[in-house]
Write a structure and sequence with these properties.
14 helices, 5 strands, two-stranded parallel ribbon, binds adenosine monophosphate, mainly alpha, about 5% strand, about 55% helix, 3-stranded parallel β-sheet
């Protein structure tokens, strides 16, 4: 039996942080072995915010480098730049003919973006969900890994697939299901006392941060005055540190520090932070090493993108030929 087709988009927005790794990338690594996976870097989507040409070029290569360093294997899961697959645009056009203004304007992601960039509420922003639908439907994929913020766009995608099928009385596009990342993913907290590590929060530990930078960031983590009674619940800022221990340290280490908390020991946060630094560095070291290897031989990126585009275009052409036939074009 053939494997289910899974397509995942990657936003080329700078470097990967630990939140990205444990929230998404780690699931991708599992997925690539279980499914017929393809990954694409959504560089067309990034035009909605008018980036500079040199930034686009750099960010595509940066994100590709880091995904490869994390272990995405292009031999089993092709990875391509969206802009290398022009077939997507033709399907985007067809889908736009069945996308209604009211639906598009109601999208939360559109409303948010429109609020963030009131001087640039362009049609690309408005039709972000149709381009996203084209990215997936062009391969007739059945599953898409998505975070919470993309669930509404997935609803739109299914609506477009359904509408196309009804309009032409065919069973052509599957309605792609959400492959919820949040089920398996760990929400990585910020060490500044905030609930989430994120770029806009400015509290990220990046995979490519060197040990000195990691140390600086971890040692600054917000704490409190220590436990006041045995076995008390941990306040959020302290829980954040323990969530980190759960992610990067061994269960024994976690237990060692959990016992300290539960036994109401004092002044162990310094030791805990030092341990965290050590364990984060141990975890990220091999990734950083692979990033350096790829940067030393950047031709590999061109080969990966070329092979990815070939695989994606072959699949896209097959779909598009049938779509044209269904619509009534030669
Ligand atoms: P972003 O870097 O905000 O574009 O996030 C890309 C993806 O990484 C999201 O859809 C999430 O799946 C994941 N992610 C980002 N930040 C975190 C976090 N702090 N904890 C868990 N997952 C995260």
């Amino acid at each position: 039996m053939s494997k289910e087709k899974v397509i995942s988009g990657i936003r080329p927005t700078g470097n990967l942080h630990l939140g990205n790794y444990f929230g998404a990338v780690r699931s991708f690594l599992e997925m690539q072995n279980e499914y017929d996976c393809m990954f694409f870097i959504a560089d067309w989507h990034s035009l909605t915010t008018n980036p500079r040409p040199e930034d686009i070029k750099r960010s595509v290569r940066t994100i590709l480098t880091e995904y490869l360093a994390c272990g995405i294997n292009p031999e089993i899961a092709p990875i391509y730049a969206q802009s290398d697959v022009p077939e997507v645009l033709e399907l985007y056009l067809y889908l736009n003919m069945n996308a209604y203004l009211g639906d598009l304007e109601r999208c939360t992601t559109f409303k948010e973006k429109a609020r963030k960039q009131p001087d640039n509420v362009n049609a690309g922003l408005l039709t972000y969900p149709t381009l996203m639908a084209a990215d997936v439907l062009i391969h007739r994929a059945t599953k898409v890994p998505v975070g919470k913020d993309q669930e509404q766009n997935m609803e739109m995608m299914r609506r477009y697939a359904r509408r196309f099928n009804q309009m032409y009385n065919v069973e052509f596009f599957p309605e792609p299901a959400n492959f919820s990342l949040s089920e398996k993913a760990i929400k990585v907290p910020g060490l500044d006392g905030s609930g989430k590590m994120g770029k806009s929060e400015g509290n990220c530990i990046y995979l490519m941060d060197d040990p000195k930078t990691i140390k600086k960031k971890v040692m600054k983590a917000v704490t409190d005055n220590g436990p006041t009674e045995p076995n008390s619940p941990k306040p959020d800022v302290i829980q954040n540190l323990y969530t980190f221990l759960e992610i990067v340290s061994t269960p024994e280490t976690y237990k060692y520090f959990d016992d300290k908390w539960n036994n109401c020991e004092q002044q162990f946060y310094g030791e805990l932070k030092k341990q965290l630094v050590e364990d984060i560095v141990r975890f990220t070291d091999p990734i950083r090493e692979r990033i350096r290897e790829i940067e030393a031989a950047p031709e590999r990126l061109d080969r990966v993108l070329k092979a990815g585009a070939e695989a994606a275009r072959e699949s896209a052409r097959t779909t598009l030929a049938e779509v044209r036939h269904i619509i009534g074009f030669k």
